[in-house]
Amino acid sequence: MSHPVTLLLGVHARQPVGNFPEVIEDAHQRCYKPFLETLYAYPDFRFAAHFSGWLLDWLRERHPEDMALLADMVRRGQVELFSSGDTEPVLAAIPHRDRVGQLQVLNDKLAAWTDRPPSGAWLTERVWESAVVPALAETSIRYVTVDDYHFFCTGKSADELDGYFSTEEDGTRLDLFPISEALRYRLPFSPAHEVIGYLESLADQGQAAAIYFDDIEKFGIWPETYDWVYHRGWLRALIEGVLASPKIRTATYAEFHAKQPTRGIVYLPTTSYSEMNEWTLPMPAARTYADFLASEKTAGRGDQHRPFIRGGIWRNFLSRYPEANWMHKRMQALSARLAALPEAPAELTAALYRAQANDAYWHGLFGGLYLPHLRRAVWNNLIALEAALDGLQARTSPATVDLDFDGKTETLAHNAALQIALRDDGLAAIHELSSYPLRHNFGDTLRRYHEHYHDKIGHGPSQHSGEGIASAHDIVRFKHPISAEDIVPDARPRAAFIDELDGIVIDDYRPTAEGPLQFSRAGITKSFALDGNR
After folding, report:
1. Largest CB tally within 10 Å, which of 54, 83, 208, 307?
2. Who contacts 524 (Cβ-Cβ below 8 Å, separation ≥6)?
3. Structural domain boundaries of the chain?
4. What H or E segment, with its residue span, contains residue 518?
5. From the candidates 86, 88, 125, 214, which is the catalytic residue?
6. Cα(182)–Cα(148) distance, rounded to whole angstroms?
7. What is each CA distance from 151 to 133, 187, 237, 274, 501, in whole angstroms?
8. Considering only CA atoms, which of 83, 293, 270 is closest in space to residue 169?
9. What's the CA angle centered on 57, arms 52 and 59, to 5 degrees?
10. Distances (CA, A) of 509 to 493, 505, 534
11. Is 125 designated active site?
12. Which H/E stretch holds residue 104?
């Protein structure tokens, strides 16, 4: 008889910093609460969970009785809690010192709450760069989960990915669990009996582990999932089917890691999950990539060739969207200023960490960068941090730099109330207009870009057939009618004080020799002033 396969099931919960309280409350009532209540009734079903520190604080304050269930499951050995950056930054996109700080904040929070320091960590958006290894190891993290796609890119086959591997950076070791895409696309969308059958087939094949770690929001927040998972009993059916099967057992990642040796050393490329690698591409490259993937699948070569079809990397979002890049480089500069203090005040460090939350820096299946309240949360924290630092460290005004590394200089001028940022891009326009008293950037706008999913608008809503429910990845649905005119991209940035002459934007201003806040073109001179100083 074959040995049972070990199901390593993990769920990841997080909400963007700055999200609306009613949205978080709805997520709790339709997902976090019923999920925890259901699992609490089955103490023999072991699993892992990650709650971002910011969300954990929010839930513990507003729903202590529900979060007490999670803490009790940890104490009785049913649940292993994973760490991460406290506010869910993409670790690879922030400085090493902040990686260490963010990880340590949540490590300490979890240890103080449950008396069990974490050994595993969730990588935000599963963005892997080997540069993150030292920070993870420095904060006592022994293993993380990444996608099986990462391993396929190294030449590994699916049947090899039933355990963990080891990697190193500068001689520092970290262990890596490969998340099964086959399970990601089955849970919770396929009927429970089909999932059980699939797991049992892995046992029949001699597989040691079936590894799953994905968004808990799929279990109640994604379209159609609340009724399917809870009212129609999918989650209970899955749990009871797993516990009843002699071919399946459950364990925490820590238990499996302690009992099983590494499968060997591996070096992964810089990448994320396959969907992310498509979202990072600009148009028309994204369309070409999607068409090529579709043609390979149609030809029956999709699985065979997928490891060699890479797409982009997460950092592409910073080059695709200048607005995201500007926020990111402002964050980096303020992080360096904060690090230069002999001792950084805790409230300033907390503001920096909130500004590093990932959601406002990119755009994929959900709104992200396009949601003004998420960008506003980043700017609120950046501006508050800068105002406090200005009270501790004087800085030159005006200052001319290339802060965002785009080859064009920016001039930043500030006083106690305002800061303006002008770019030498021919527009002589203000790209940032931040109020320190209001903690608000009036220049926080986003131009309209051509996105890959705009091509789907003409196809209308998608349909799902067969058993189970559709994944959000497969759904095309619109809240109101959208026409081609609604998605015409902007030709220029949406900045303040852009000039037009006879309906044509003036884009050939150049800085003058009289000062960094003065621009001119044939017949026109334009200048900016703060407190009357030109």
Report:
1. 83
2. 499, 506, 509
3. 5-274, 281-314, 318-447+491-527
4. strand 515-521
5. 125
6. 9
7. 17, 21, 32, 12, 56
8. 270
9. 95
10. 15, 11, 17
11. yes
12. helix 96-114
**In 3D, which of 47, 10, 3 has the Cα closest to residue 202?**
3
CA nearest 16: which of 57, 52, 45? 52
Length of the chain in terms of residues written: 534
171 touches 158 (CB < 8 A): no
Question: For the structural domain made of 5-274, what CATH number should be given?
Answer: 3.20.110.20
Which residue, among 406, 453, 454, 452, has the nearest Cα to 431 in the 3D structure?
406
* Catalytic residue, candidates 72, 138, 215, 296: 215
User: What is the number of other CB atoms lying within 10 angstroms of the CB of residue 262?
Assistant: 16
How far is the C-alpha of 105 from the C-alpha of 139, rounded, in Å? 10
CB 402 within 8 A of CB 411: no
Of the candidates 228, 223, 253, the residue with the CA atom closest to the CA atom of residue 238: 228
Separation CA 334–CA 95 (nearest Å): 11
If DSSP codes are grouped into helix, strand and coil, which group holds residue 244? helix
H runs (alpha helix) in 358-502: 372-392
This model's pTM is above 0.90? yes
d(CA 29, CA 6): 30
175 included as an active-site residue? no
pLDDT per residue rounded down to tens, the chain (534 residues): 579 999 999 999 999 999 999 999 999 999 999 999 999 999 999 999 999 999 999 999 999 999 999 999 999 999 999 999 999 999 999 999 999 999 999 999 999 999 999 999 999 999 999 999 999 999 999 999 999 999 999 999 999 999 999 999 999 999 999 999 999 999 999 999 999 999 999 999 999 999 999 999 999 999 999 999 999 999 999 999 999 999 999 999 999 999 999 999 999 999 998 889 999 999 999 999 999 999 999 999 988 888 888 899 999 999 999 999 999 999 999 999 999 999 999 999 999 999 999 999 999 877 899 999 999 999 999 999 999 999 999 999 999 999 999 999 999 999 999 999 999 999 999 999 999 999 999 999 999 999 988 877 656 555 545 565 555 555 556 667 777 778 889 989 999 999 998 889 999 999 998 888 999 998 889 999 887 544
